[in-house]
Specification:
Helices cover 36% and strands 21% of the residues. It has 233 residues and is of the alpha/beta class. It has two domains: 59 residues, no CATH class; 162 residues, 2-enoyl-CoA Hydratase, Chain A, domain 1, CATH 3.90.226. The N terminus and C terminus are likely disordered.
Length: 233
Amino acid sequence: MVIDKIKKRNISNDETQNSHSKADIPIGKWVKCDKCKEILYKEDLHNNYSICPNCDYHFRLSSRRRLKQIIDEGTFNEFELNIENVNPLNIKEYSKKIETLREKTGLDEAVKCGTGKIYGEDVVICIMDGNFLMGSMGSVVGEKITYSIEKAIELKLPIIIFSVSGGARMQEGIISLMQMAKTSAAISKLNKAGNLYISVLTDPTYRRSYSKLCKSWRYNTCRTRSNDRICRT
């Protein structure tokens, strides 16, 4: 094998001394902008809402980072539904993948839902996370979003949904497609109740699963890589 032909280079004492004399750069403290290629200090980037200060490039956000930006500190209360994923096609790799992602990301599923405050005003909020199976919609995601919409109606609160998704979760077959009808029906009830609904489309959001969530908006915000647009309907 090629790897077997690679020989380790013996490092001389002079090279060892030179390496110690160089300044150590902490790992994980810097990030490279995909647009302008500038090297940025990660803490400064986070303080600038994950927007490159040189070219206004918008970095993708995790659900935790977005919550920190949007919701008043210490006010978020996540809905605890304790719903388990279904595996109707009996795909062994699917169950293992879910467990691996839970350990890796610290998330139970591809969406975080709950109540919180924005400048002291109560809201219901759902935030997708692309780090968990690309934010795909399965039975648990659909149920969590539907529950959040129904809770907003019950509490007479506005609801904000941040969509970031690769579409329906193919590992759950027809059950994942059924979530489109369920969430669409819940949004229709929300509109009839007169609640404020803000749909925020983030990068990346594909069609199919989330098209229904975005067709019945009151206000729609599209966050792209270059700017934010708010459209009233």
